[in-house]
Amino acid sequence: MTRFEPADVRSWGNVLQAEHHAAFPAWRDQLARIVLSGRQEGRALLATGLRRSYGDSGLNPEGGLIDMTGLDRIIDFDRERRLVRVEAGLSFDALLGVIVRQGFFLPVTPGTRFVTMGGAVANDVHGKNHHINGTIGRWVRRIGLMRSNGEELELTLESDPQLFSATIGGLGLTGAITWVELEVLPIESAVMEAENIPFDNLDMFFSLAAESDNAFDYTVSWIDCLAKGASLGRGIFTRGNHAKTGSRLPGRGNTKFTMPLSLPSLCMNRYSISAFNSLYFWNGKRKAGRQNIPIYQFFYPLDSIGRWNRMYGSKGMYQFQSVVPPAVEKDATKEMLKTISASGQGSFLAVLKTFGAISSPGMLSFPRPGTTLALDFPNHGETTSRLMARLDDIVLEAGGRLYPAKDGRMPARMFKAGYPAWQDFAKYVDSGFSSHFWKRVSQE
């Protein structure tokens, strides 16, 4: 469909929702007509995928959306050169279903496989192996980009380094990504050799992270965000490598069931979260050790529950993800966890990980050397706002930054301090593209 039609669109966090006008192309040759139509109607556009961004970087209520999920084809797969070219609306789930059977895997993947290739590149996603492979942008070789004048460009780092770097991690603001050519990794099975190690406090986490980086390609930790005192920062450290033997069949996925509707907001409180976290930590200690597990189970535990965001109720949730530099990572992380624990707010899904020193190619890419903390906060209105403002101050003082893909309320001062290249990036923003996020942080 090449016309813009009314569509109810909301963020994955379910806090932000607004009436939009959206077009739904089924073929790439329809894109130019859609873009030019938007230009004639005076709509600033934004291409979107499966809309897993938590906040407003995927919203554009005053303009128009181009829903790219109908453009979901594999264009070419060169096994010898390990290059796959796909349309921007193809999901990681669909791509993995093809390449894993052929003995390949994505070089970088976030914690869900239900993202599109265009969305992954536009947010320059990272994963459990950042210390080894960096962000996905490092593995992109070519990009198709539709500008607001209807012209489709083919970008490479060599042909147009500035626009290429602005597009990777550029939140869809340089134009509509139409296709991506990506280098993929060879694997020998669809099985992971994994190890779970309980740790009792934050110091133990940092020790485990330091000793694991050289021997394990993938590391990540779940933490109990409400633990206090000597147990502050306790959790389960997970590390792993691709197994050299085992089935190459990825299976049908790991989704056990789907949340049919939003839970009452009262279900997400200090007592339920604390009880769950205590039980999860106890169970993690009980199951500690090494085991071989299916590849989807290792990389995408959140996908085991479809529409898990509904657990946070009709008021939704905010996600907070920060990164703070190595020189202050221990003190800043401890201060954030103390603040969260004292507030009684937090989530079941708190994640702690160290980033490596591999530079991200995008001008607005989030990862940098240091420690990243990510967790969800049920939306309790002003109480939640005050907590997140206090966390902002800690991150700002530490010289860190927040992740636009996870954000729904980052103050402009936080964005500009965390991304000093934002003004250089702005030179490459296509005036025919915009988003609620960009208007909020660039114009204040």
Automatic annotation (TrEMBL):
PROSITE patterns for the chain: FAD_PCMH
Record key words, sorted: FAD, Flavoprotein
Pfam families assigned: FAD_binding_4 (PF01565)
Source species, domain of life: Bacteria
Single GO MF descriptor: FAD binding
Residues in FAD-binding PCMH-type domain copies: 13-187
Keyword presence, Flavoprotein: yes
SUPFAM superfamilies: FAD-binding/transporter-associated domain-like
PANTHER family listed in its UniProt record: D-ARABINONO-1,4-LACTONE OXIDASE, L-GULONOLACTONE OXIDASE
Descriptive protein name: FAD-binding oxidoreductase
Biological source species: Rhizobium anhuiense
